[in-house]
Amino acid sequence: MTVEALPAEVPRWRAGDSAARRPLWDFVRDSGLQSVVVGLSKDPNAKVTLLLVSSDTGRPMLAAKVPTTDGAAVAVEAEMRALEQIRALVSDDLRETIPRVVDVVSFDGRPAAVASAVPGTPMTVSYMRRRHTRSTARVAADLAAVGAWLTGFQRDTVRGRGPLNMDGDVAARLARRFPDDAELGADLERLAELHARLECETVPSTAVHGDLWFGNVLLREGNVSGVVDWEAGAA
Q1: Which CATH number describes the domain made up of 3-119?
Q2: For residues 92 and 173, what is the distance between their CA atoms, to the nearest angstrom?
Q3: Of 70, 72, 10, which is closest to residue 39 (Cα–Cα)?
Q4: How do the domains of the chain map onto residue ranges?
Q5: Which of 64, 125, 173, 212 fits a 20 to 30 Å CA distance from 135?
């Protein structure tokens, strides 16, 4: 099987398809692509990111996000749902910057998402190099590119107006992740006060990425060519 034989997009991904999923390594072997592990998250429920690269061009063709725990599998499932919903809302141009799920495979009995690899160079490459941040013009151009992408994304996904809700389950997640932190209670109280004040404002309601930082943005020729890691996204 070649990459071109893969479905253009997984239609209506369902959690109940586990029995029919191919093992990840069978998928990798059958794809004819080379595999490179490019990332291991440091979250309590870590995921491994695996790039599948063409041996002819050296270009990444697919990216697999592989959960290592049951909690990580829930996050992978959430990302697949978010990608399906958000890609249906945006224009063709923006859709090219957002990964599309092309298959769901199995790793240790858990679902692993296989998505298209978006083009471009991660912003982290530039920001880890010497002297990039010395140039105000270069940094301003980076921020302008991300701002232009975000403007288009919000324009395509706006759905009326609503209260400015900055919580997004953040407080509950902090409470679950740091239950033994003695200062967490006071921090959460202060955070709740800020959220209550902000909710008095109304803003356009749009889809969100949920983790939009330079580590998740790719650039090409001065424009955003890809945005990855949508597990905290919501339409």
Answers
A1: 3.30.200.20
A2: 34
A3: 72
A4: 3-119
A5: 212
Secondary structure (DSSP) of 111-172: EEEEEEPPPSEEHHHHHHSTTGGG-HHHHHHHHHHHHHHHHHHHHHH--SEEE----TTHHH
Q: What is the residue type of 16? A: G
Q: What is the model's pTM?
A: 0.82
Rounded distance between C-alpha atoms, residue 173 and residue 162, angstroms: 23
Rounded CA gap, 2 and 33, in Å? 9
pLDDT means per 10 residues, the chain with 235 residues, are 47 56 92 85 81 91 93 91 94 96 92 94 89 92 97 95 85 90 93 92 91 94 96 88
